[in-house]
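Extended Data, panel c. Modelled sequence:
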Amino acid sequence: ILVLVLLGAATKSAQVPCHFWLPSAMAAPTPVSAYLHSATMVKAGIYLLARLHPQLGGTLVWEWSVGALGLLTMLLGAAMALGQHDLKRILAYSTVAVLGILTMLLGIGTDLAVKTAVVFLFAHALYKASLFMVAGNVDHETGTRDVTALGGLRRALPWTAAAGALAALSQAGAPPMVGFIGKELLYKAKLDVETIGAWLVTAAVLANVALVATAILVGLRPFWGR
């Protein structure tokens, strides 16, 4: 049962090695990308793991399989996001990284970790859907999503620039955004893990560096860059 649940959750929520479908789905219209592929439906696998945690969790098999799956997905998604130039693909790979974070938290399975997963899921839905809509506005008005070809749009798109800046600050974990609360809880939940807590926090910091960079690339650079 556990193996089948993990297979279903991993494919639905883009965990390694099934992460490739999410960036490929960015061909869909932006509202679809924002709603289905970042904020809500893609998290159905995460929701399934959370719902079944009381029944299947609390064992070493659960902790190591779910936790390791999330850790690998987090690091791979964060690394691949940095190598993209298309606004929506940058956001897609950063979404893969966050889905990995949520899976890893459920793998840890402590009371704080599960609560942190719920907070982080909520925060991510808000800022990532906003950033996708920002990317869609930029694409609609300029005809391109290539971040290397965009800059100085704050004068032409002031409202989009403001929305992008707010969403980017939340993704970067800047106070007083709800994203800041999620990331603070994330570090605390990992520090509570015995033996490997420090290693998990180190991995989370590395992934967060990439998430901050992608927030700047999508939410700030097209508007405030040269």
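The chain has a mean pLDDT of 88. This feature is highlighted in the accompanying rendering.
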